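[Archive record]
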Amino acid sequence: MLEMLLSPKRGGKEPWMMFFIGVVYASLSLLLVNWIFSSDAVLAKYSGVLVVTFTVMFSLPFMYYLIKDEEEKDIEYEGMIRILKEHSKAIMALMWLFFGFIVAFSFWYILLASSQSFRAQIETYCLINRPSNFEECVSQYGVESAAKPTGFLTAKERIFMIFTNNIYVLIFTLVFSLIFGAGAIFVLAWNASVIAAAVGIFSKSNIASLPLGIMRYMIHGFPEIAAYFIGALAGGIVSVAIIKHDTKSEKFWGILQDSLNLIIIAVIILFLAALIEVFITPMLF
């Protein structure tokens, strides 16, 4: 019923509408998980993963429609510039959806003031930022370490580490979208929830600091996520094309070439995002 009320078709025509849909999906997911599973001694421990799972379930109809529509554009239009221009509309819709996830998750993280709903996300944050002091970080929600850089790494080493990690995420996104056309939404929804936990930690659980916290992570986060969505789109297009077309046909190889171009663009954007994270973000925050 919900997918009929919030029509996926509107996302392609009015990308900004996906922001509000993202807020609704993420908020409903969090509230449902807290209402249904908070009293369960076992499942309550996995609330962070369940929240992402519910968000993915809500988002699947939109992702399926979007990928199917983009695959048809590869057949309808010719020329890389024209095709990339058409794909940009889908990327914007996905970006607005993702931004809606982040805003909603960050808001509820601060409002609920409970680590239980974001337990997995906090552990992931601490594993990345304070691996040598993991237990202490988890107990304190990592607030004290949110703004501390990893000074023992040179700029070159940090760029390499960040870029390599982002490439791994891009590969997972591609694999998920190839196996299950809309499957990449799980990787992306999970990243949105981890970023939201980091935003909440940076904001020190203060609603007034939420915009600053979002800006802190979105300066380099937006190009990173855009690259992941481009990769998800590339994998999803190939996935649909394999089902609909003969792999030896000319149309299929045209779609494959288009997907390869999207992947190359995604890799370039990820490298630029790593440079922004190392050199620009620390200057501003």
Q: What stands out?
A: Residues 142-151 have pLDDT under 50 and may be disordered. Residues 16-284 form one domain.
